Amino acid sequence: xxxxxxxxxxxxxxxxxxxxxxxxxxxxxxxxxxxxxxxxxxxxxxxxxxxxxxxxxxxxxxxxxxxxxxxxxxxxxxxxxxxxxxxxxxxxxxxxxxxxxxxxxxxxxxxxxxxxxxxxxxxxxxxxxxxxxxxx
Length: 136
Known about the structure:
Blueprint: H1 3-6, E1 10-13, E2 28-35, E3 40-44, E4 50-54, E5 58-61, H2 64-73, H3 80-95, H4 98-109, H5 115-118, E6 119-121, H6 122-125
Antiparallel strand pairs: 1-2, 1-5, 2-3, 3-4, 5-6
């Protein structure tokens, strides 16, 4: 995903973010600007407030194909309620309207057990997270 593709995207501020002056942990905002060199993302919220976050403090939904492919890798030990939440998120993504994506982000936010399966950091989606290589 590129910076321009991210503009206007709904993202979730990490619910467990500590000591951020904006105090919007767990809120959903709209990406207004991405400053990749400084690793900052500018968000606008529904109450017209604005805040700046590092890209690793923001999450967006994974593609629906990845919701279930990664779930399958974990085996059948997933709780039924978690599977249902992932299914709801995938269905809402299919609908594709802004309010559906918003609802899907709320479902993901409210169930920490599915964060790994349903959310990806903006940092990772922009390709800013660099792979670690082990030297000989």
